[in-house]
Structures are given as structure tokens and as C-alpha cells.
């Protein structure tokens, strides 16, 4: 089914007459940022980005395409692009984040929300997560619990003071903390702290077979490139963290094999496009 759909899209594109673009058309182009099939294969999520000249910004759109009915529905044009949209295990829901005022002042004062769209009811559910801003997200083995990460930011005054001493500022960038939470949404919302990690987390993945979380580390300074690896924690005993890789490269795009027994990822080195 996937191959037929993609082939049809290619044929349609090739069948159209190529016209020269004027400047207005060139700057009004739409970028496709994400294509994600549901686990059932019946729906396709499309994330696109196009300029909004009236607001001097961009629309980050999330579309839901029903493959069987050949219908497209706009979910939001204000998607938070830094958090990847994630399908639930059954494919009946997907989780996403909507852009809010993410300035540092607002970050501490306001309540943020995680959003779930139900394929069955065609409704969006808003879940309060306090002043936490998710930066990575993964579902558990059911549709009623998720794991997400947040970053412990410094205050504006602290950050300004550290910038006065560049060396000290760069040292503190390696000591910022990521917190992993579990959120249960079956009847009432319950948020549980899992673990504080002494580096930034780029991607998060749940491994049902072992009841573990696997994640990638991210460094904001080039001097700490050696910490960019893959790690895991056992949710039965989250005190201990295990480093899974020791590569001279950057790991990303974590995936589980079909049987859930193998971890797949891409790795590339600086200066390489592989």
C-alpha cells in the first residue's frame, strides 16, 4: 500500500508540466518536514512549513491524510516543530505540541499542554503538564502512558552573569540537566519523575520487551562531542544508566526492529553526509 501511494504521488508530479517560478511563487513555497504512517497503515501525518507574510513568520502545519477515504484534514497550523509528532502503539492517537509563548519569562509562569488527537472521535485532547516543555517524546506499550523529557533552564540573570565569563559559561553548558517524566492519562493525569540526566537528550525511545528507555545525548558545545552516544535506563531500577555505544560519530533516528529485539539507528561523523 505504501509503495502504491508513493508511486502515485511520483507519477502525478512527473505528469505535471514544469513551469518557471516567479519570485512570489518561489518565496511562497511549502516545505514538507515529516511524513509518518500510522501503525495501522490507514493514515498519514504530514508536517509542512510555509511563510506567513502578514505575521512575518511561518505556518508550521500538521495534516492528517485518510488513505482509504482520500481526505486530508488540517490539525493545526501552529505546530511546535522542535517536538516530533508520535503515533500511539495502536495508531488510534498521536501526540503533538502546539507553539506557545516560549520566552524564558513565560516559560516559568505559564501552564503548558500536550495535545492528543483521537482518530476514533476526531477530537483533540489537551493535557496539562505544568510549566514543563517537552523536547523529546515516546509512547509506552499502550495508548495511556507516555514518556517525555524537559530541560532545566537557568534564569535570565544567571545566564547573563555567566556570559560575562565566557570560559565559565561554556563549562556550565555541559552541566545542564534533562529530566525524564512519565505521564499516565487513563482516567486522571499523573506525572511521575523518572530520572534527572546530566546532559541534553535528543531522542527518546521505549523498549517494551525490556521495559527500558533508550535515548541519545546531545551537546551544545563542540568540545563535548565525545558524550554524543546512545544510553539506556532500566525502568525497574532507574538509578543506573548504561552507555550502549562508543562511536566517533553522532547517532540519531532511533528505531526498534519489527520484533522489538534490535535497536536501529543512523550514525555519521562530522564532515560526513553518511
Uncertain residue ranges: 13-17, 102-108, 166-174
Which strand order spans the largest sheet, edge to edge or round the barrel?
A: 1-2-3-4
Radius of gyration: 21 Å
Structural class: mainly beta
Q: Provide mean pLDDT, rounded.
A: 80
Report the helical percentage.
10-25%
Q: Can you count the helices?
A: 5
Our measurement of the CA-to-CA distance between the termini, rounded to an integer number of angstroms, reads 29 Å
- How many β-strand runs? 18
Query: Major sheet, described briefly?
Result: 4 strands, antiparallel
Q: Write the H/E string, N to C.
A: HHEEEEEEHEEEEHHEEEEEEEE
Overall spatial form: globular
- Tell me the fraction of residues in β-strands, as a range: 35-45%
Keywords: Signal
Protein name: Dipeptidylpeptidase IV N-terminal domain-containing protein
InterPro entries: 6-blade_b-propeller_TolB-like, Peptidase_S9B_N
GO biological process, one term: proteolysis
Task: Give a summary of the structure in a few sentences.
By secondary structure, the protein is mostly beta strands.
Explain this structure:
The chain is mostly beta strands. It has a domain at 138-274. The chain is built from five helices and 18 strands. The strands form five sheets. It has a four-stranded antiparallel sheet, with no helix packed on it. Strand 2 and strand 3 form a beta hairpin. The model is unreliable at 13-17, 102-108 and 166-174 (pLDDT under 50). This is Dipeptidylpeptidase IV N-terminal domain-containing protein. One of its GO terms (biological process) is proteolysis. Keywords: Signal. Residues 1-15 form the signal peptide. Residues 38-105 form the Dipeptidylpeptidase IV N-terminal domain.
